[in-house]
Each structure stands twice: as C-alpha cells, then as structure tokens.
Amino acid sequence: MRHHLQAAFFRSLFIGASPPYLELAVRRAHVVRDTATQLAAVRDARDLRRQIKAHFVGEPAVDEGGVARELMALAARGVVAPEYGLFTPCGRANEVVWFLSGLPVDREAAADYELIGKLVGLALYNGIQLPIHFPLALFKKLMGEPLLLSDLAEIDPELARGLQTLLEFPEEQVRETYCCSFTIAPPPPPGSMSGTDATAAMVELVPGGADMELKGDNRKEYVAAVLNWHLNVVVADKFSMFQRGWDAVVAESSVKHLFNGGELMQVVLGDDEFDLDALAEAAVYDGGYSPESRVVQDFWAELKALSLADQRRFLFFVTGSDRPPVGGLGRVVVVIMRQGPDSDRLPSAHTCFNVLLLPEYATREKVQVMVGRAVAHMEGFGLM
Predict the structure, then answer these.
(1) Is the distance from CB of 129 to CB of 324 less than 8 angstroms?
(2) Which residues contact 201 (CB under 8 A, 6 or more apart)?
(3) What is the mean pLDDT of residues 237-261?
C-alpha cells in the first residue's frame, strides 16, 4: 500500500491537484456522522488511499498518526456498537460482532455499512488497527474464500455444534430422527424474544427445498445450505454495502494478491496477544526519567496489575489504538516523559507521538490512583 501513498504525494507535487493527505476534521460528539459525511464526499478513489490527517474540531493537536488512530477507532466503535442497530454481539461470550439480521437496509443504514467498509480499507492503507472484533468469516468473504463450519462456529457456536452432530450421526437414522426438509425459519425481527419467527413461512434453503427430505446421503448438502443461509443469504444486503465501502478504497489495488482472509484480519484488527512486558521493554524515557526511576517502576507495576480491559484502555489513551500491531506490543514505542514534580495533575498523553506525560508522584499509591483516573476518563481527556 505504501506505493499508493507515495503516488498521491508526488501527484500533489507535480500535478498540483490536491494535498497528499486525506484530511478529516470531525466533532468528537459526532464522530460517526461527520466521518461518514466527509468520506462520502470523496469522489476519486485514489484520494481514499492517501494517508489520513485527522483533527478533532476545537482540540489542539498535530496529527503524526495518533489522532488518526483515535478517530478511526472511535468511528469504528460507534458504528458497530449494538445501540447503533447495525451489528450485534455474538459467538462465545459475545466476543465478536456480526451483521444484524431481520431488518431491511434503509438509506441511512446503507451509508453506515458502507462507512465501516471504508474504515476497514482505510485502516489497511494507513497501518491502523481497529478496536473491533469482526470474525474471520468477514475477511474471508472480502477475499472471496469459501466459508467453513468453523467460521459459523465463531458466530453461532450452538448452531455449528448441532450441524456437526448431524454430520456425525448414524447415516441410517438421520431421516427418522431429524424429520425435516431443506427449509429454515427466517430470522426474527431485532428485539424478538424468540430465535425464530413462528408466524413467518419457512424459507427454502435450495430451490425445491420444501420437497427435499433430509437424509443420511444428503446431509452434507443440507449443512452447506444452512451455512450459506446464515453467513451469506440473510446478511447479503448488509454485506453488499460493507463491501461497496471496502471496494471504494481497495478495488484498484493488489490487496487480494497480498493477503488471505486470516492475514487480512490480523493486519486490520491487530495481534491478539497483549504483552505488557514487551511494551515496557520497548519504551523510552525523557525529561529525567529512566527505567530505574522509582515512579517509572511503580507505574509499570500498577499498569500490569490492571485488568486486560483497562490495559487496553491505557494503550488507547497513549497511542490512539487499543490493539497491538502485527508483531505485537514490542513494535510500539511509548515515550514516558517527566511532567514536573509530585502534583495532583493527572497523567496526559500526546497520542500524536505516543508520549505519556507522567508527573513524579510521591508514592506508589498515588501512581495507582492517578493512572487509574486517567485511564477511566481517557477519551478526550488529557489527550493532545
């Protein structure tokens, strides 16, 4: 992707058409809508492949990467939040998000699905990891790869287990035990207490499916049809708009020849391993601090004592992203700088440069309190 960024820069120098950056200025309280509006106004796909320069209206900051990461993270989180009505938590312990089925896509929802597709493409081009948990199936669909039962298991583990049981069932007992045809109940409207819509007519999984009995010799075809229904058919309109946004950024690139679905997922969502020891080892110090400074050692000890969720919040507080890049936290260089003697001032951060400004608190207990408060109120507080 780097050659696309370089091409945009040199076009601006020698052709003089426009700046070499994709500039976004958004209001923090309206991140999703402002981002969607400004990206929708970009008509030339080449402009979407420029490096992002972001700015929050009313906030002083020079974007050296951190502000863009924060904007992308906030916009992505906003679009996939359950209350936004586009995606729903699912999978084991609701650890992934998937397209919300059961409602038609209106004009506004279509624009928002397109936005999140663009954000995924922009994240790829800008080397930004998004703090969202899409399943592998989404990235395999973008890459045109076949979907497997294991992909369904990440989204609906109970259904996947049931289909696996069917595949392993004694062949001669399938027909009399399951007593069903190649049909399925449509998804219920969001908010329904039932998993299916009992008042709706059954839908054929394949043409003529109502007249096809499930038997031992056709159960593989049945499982494939159910898999296709859940991962493709019922989300087709939503995914189509998502893919439209993705294609607006990457359609003319060679990305499909660079990654498979799993690799694309890792590049966009980052590394799952959260190794604070690696982050501490890569850190550098300024303003009189060193790894041996008492407050520095207290800081790392208290940070490691936090929950994983709060550790991720800290990473977002300092860098604008709560996801480690490919290769892990050892590739993230955080600068810890002394911000004067002991005081009641909370730590602050220059997300542009991954700099944490840390006063020299007098006790470890005070380090714990101040760092905890800063992380709890991180968004828009103490970020520069």
Answers:
(1) yes
(2) none
(3) 89
Distance of CA 98 to the CA centre of its chain: 11
Q: Is 335 helix (H, G, I), strand (E, B) or coil?
A: strand
- Label the pairing between strands 335-338 and 348-350: unpaired
pTM (2 d.p.): 0.80
Active-site positions read 352
Q: How is residue 324 written in tokens?
A: 């480690």
Most confidently modeled range among 96-105, 228-237, 272-281: 228-237
Structure tokens that stand for 106 in this block: 């209106």
- Strand ranges for the chain from DSSP E: 21-26, 51-56, 87-90, 96-99, 183-184, 203-204, 284-286, 335-338, 348-350, 355-358
**Residue that is written with structure tokens 């550098």 in the block:** 284
Beta bridge partners of 339: none
209-226 exposure pattern, b = at least 16 Cβ within 10 A, e = fewer:
beebebebeebeebbbbb
% the chain with pLDDT above 70: 89
Q: Summarize pLDDT for 113-166 with one digit per residue, the tens.
A: 999 999 999 999 888 889 889 999 999 999 999 999 999 999 999 999 999 999
In 3-state terms, what secondary structure has residue 306? coil
